[in-house]
Amino acid sequence: MSAATSLTHLLLGTNMGNRCGYLQFAQEMIQQNIGTICRYSPVYETSPWGYTQQADFLNQALVVQTHCSPEQLLTLLQEIETKAGRQRLMHWGPRTLDIDIIAIENKVICSERLQVPHPALAQRRFVLQPLAEIAPEWQHPLSRLTYRQMLASCRDNTIVKKYDCPLIFDCKRI
Ligand code: ADP
Ligand code: MG
Predict the structure, then answer these.
(1) Among residues 14, 105, 126, 137, which is most buried (max CB within 10 A)?
(2) Among this protein's residues, is 170 annotated catalytic?
């Protein structure tokens, strides 16, 4: 932990079991172990990407204020995925919970374990759509494009539609 805080953009994804329950679980664990959830996007349902013979995903983006370093953040997020029963059987395969770090302020990180901003973010509508709702003017530190601009020029035709989750995060409750 350090004294400074960073605003981090996370993307939650789930396509197994009680998908809304896993989103709720992730939000509670993040709030307890990582920092304050400042903003959260609507939940979107999206067709699978990469390996397409699997169930549809729910995705949701969060803006989280945290004291964690980027490496600590990744470790803590992976612990939350494991607690949610995540098994790493296949790259891009079905998962109870995936939490990706999309951006951390305007940091650029390129280590073996962690790449930030997420290298594929500009190609994926299911990343850009929720983030353009909650942080439209954030600027990619390398391309200088905002989420709004990247979404406008994104060629990914995957269907990304709003989904009504009965369990929905309520900041006031925590
Ligand atoms: P994916 O999210 O690509 O389907 P995983 O969740 O299994 O796959 O992550 C694979 C690896 O990606 C992790 O072990 C982690 O070290 C690495 N990784 C690199 N950059 C990031 C990032 N920005 N967010 C999350 N994981 C990342
Ligand atoms: Mg991941």
Answers:
(1) 14
(2) no
